[in-house]
Amino acid sequence: MTADPGPALVVCSGGLDSVTLAHRLSTEPGGVAALVTFDYGQRHRKEIEFAARCAKRLGVAYEVIDLSDVGRRIAGSALTDSEDVPDGHYSSETMAVTVVPNRNPLMLTAAFALAGGRGIARVAAAMHTGDHVIYPDCRPAFVDAFQAMEDTALDGVASINLETPFIHWSKTDIAAEAGRLGVPIAETWSCYKGEAVHCGRCGTCVERLEALHDAGVEDPTEYADRDFWREEIARWQGRS
């Protein structure tokens, strides 16, 4: 029998990846202690709302950590500044403007502090291979370096492991896992634009629609444009 590793603190944005991670861990030994999300001055709060829904659904505690003052001071990102969120394929070409410098180190440092104060020995985050080319703080090298930093920072104080079970998974792998676990897809929020419904045109929407389609998972999410992703994928395939 696998030893109980103790419950995990899950960093949850309310998106498909982190909500699927929370559902997955809730079924495994140790379970989930709480979900933590962050207000970092992003252009909308819809993702925070969907993270709260996930916590309620799983019956676990929920924390929102306010980093908004820091976020408001970070210029040049479409997520925290006046830059427009681009439409199109999820790639370095379209998504570079969504990089928020040092976002994951800021969030994970806060999550580790929260976990250390509460005696939680695991912090889990949902980075995956699709993020590697765009976001340097989603890559395996960052995960290893951050763990080494925290091992030093907490030496003699606490022992906390950073768990990233999706780090070598594709978005389609995660979509398939969401289907296997019965994650309510429409109760996750991916769109960076934060309008009344998913736009269906930004990089995160295109990536989401493609992954769920390729995984054969039904997607009842409402999109303003449900067909754009097919045209965009065909256009990109034509470029190769």
Automatic annotation (TrEMBL):
GO molecular function, one term: ATP binding
Pathway: Purine metabolism; 7-cyano-7-deazaguanine biosynthesis
GO BP: tRNA queuosine(34) biosynthetic process
SUPFAM superfamilies, per the entry: Adenine nucleotide alpha hydrolases-like (SSF52402)
Organism taxonomic ancestry: Bacteria, Pseudomonadati, Pseudomonadota, Alphaproteobacteria, Rhodospirillales
InterPro entries named among the record's database cross-references: QueC, Rossmann-like_a/b/a_fold
This protein's UniProt keywords: ATP-binding, Ligase, Metal-binding, Nucleotide-binding, Queuosine biosynthesis, Zinc
Stated family: Belongs to the QueC family.
Catalytic function, reaction form: 7-carboxy-7-carbaguanine + NH4(+) + 2 ATP = 7-cyano-7-carbaguanine + 2 AMP + 2 diphosphate + 2 H(+)
Protein name from the UniProt record: 7-cyano-7-deazaguanine synthase
Cofactors required: Zn(2+)
Organism encoding this protein: Rhodovibrio salinarum
Top-rank lineage group of the source organism: Bacteria
Binding site for Zn(2+): 191, 199, 202, 205
Binding site for ATP: 12-22
Co-factor: note: Binds 1 zinc ion per subunit.
PANTHER family xref list: 7-CYANO-7-DEAZAGUANINE SYNTHASE
Keyword DNA-binding: no
